[in-house]
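#structure-requests
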Amino acid sequence: MSNHRIITKRIMAAAASAVIASTAFCAALPVVNAAGIPTGSTVQSAADPSISMSLLAGGSKIGILFYVDVPGDISDYKVYLDQTEYDIKESEKGYYIEAEEYAMYMMKRHTVSIEKDGEEVLSKTVSVCGYLNEIIGSSAYEAYVPLAKAMLMYGGAAQEYFRVDAKDSPSDGITGADYSDVVIDAEPFDKAAFNETLEGSPVKYYGMNLSLRSETRFTLFFELEDGADISEAEDYLSGFTFGGSTASVRQNGTKYLEVSIDVPAFRLGDDYELTNGTVKASFSPAQYLAAAAADDDEKLADVCKALYAYGEAALAASDIEEPAAEKWTSGQTYSGYATVYDLVSQGCANLDSFASEYGYETCALSVPDYAGSEMAGAYLELKDSSGNAAYLLVTDRDGNNQMQAGDVDIEQNIFTQGSSFTSGKVAVTWRVMPLPSAEDANVRYSVKNGSSIYWCEIQVQNHRYPVAKLEYKNSSGEFEELSRKDYNYFAFPEGASLNGGVTLRITDIFGETLVDEDVDLKLTTSGENVPEPYIVPGGVQFAK
């Protein structure tokens, strides 16, 4: 045990940077806004600079990814972490910088800042501990909670083991996560048997170590045989592969050599073969952890158990499908191309009369953005690269299905002479704005022609923001979602009780919900009495 104790005292519990390629071998935690707001998996284009954060867990290193979203050309910006400029990289999720954190410093606060033309345009202070607690506190990321808790418990154990001077611990207040009962199932390595296979070589096996200050590095130690030359021994070990890769051999003083590989935290229980084709032996980091967990040093035992529990949690989370980003986010700017067309027929959203009543200019969106009429009635601010702006009501979709997401079809008469919008295909940005006519008026409902107490479809109009979902309170007192038609009407189910007032619940694209009670749709027993749609007032409106 004495040799083992010498080696185990070298343990340094922490973690380090992860490269983007390592996502295939670890769990990628969700992207979370630096203000603590989960944003989903994709960073969207913003009207103002923003910073979001993500972690890579369970690999040989723990990585921090800071996503930056800026208006304009990314090359005009610089990103700093704790006053050090980092290279901006690009992935399918957006632009980012990558960094690292030690487990024992999960409480440490870091400043991420964005500069343009030498001036700071945004600065945020974040920590790994704060990020993980946001994950735990968000119902959207329930599947990641066990991993987040395991990481915080590991951070707390590492902080205690290394005597980090901090007022609080990452594991403070974490319930439902404990490593005290962790059992690391690993048979002790047969040192004597392995050394028999090395007989006649310039080395003999001495022991193993798992070093974690900069990475999860698994190291085997070899001692020089009496009379052997260290260069000869190094050449001998360089002929081995370790875990399928060429062995990394390093001298340790004048008597020892090290053979190392980096191993993912979620594969600490795996076997890694050391062989030169003739000599073969399998080693597992769990063998080291099991022995260390049984050590008299309680803090060492704790950090080893916590690390193992974290690795197991990362393994369990490695196949979680990351929640999709919200398609629409308040204040976000979207980009695409504007094409000019002449409106020759009624738009499919059936809002032309409403647009005419309030004097709104209209436009059409691509099929993906129209989203089956979800964006019908959206009020858009559209700008070209010169700053020319137009304000348009979405009343139609691309009938030919040739537009891409972000594209907008606009009418020829919208812009003044000389505007870049007068013809052709022009790059634009746009965002959803509050509908002006909703400023001092409630929502209203258009009842479709032919409706009766037996069959009815309604359309919500004059909503401050687009309507994502409409529900009604059924005879059981529960809200039931109405099916939505691509022509922007909602259908009540067969058998719905519509004789009298109905209670409706409206949800907009940003998640705000309204309940409109006892709405009298003025239905009769015969749809023949409703040859044309008619308007019924509502009693609620979305907040600004």
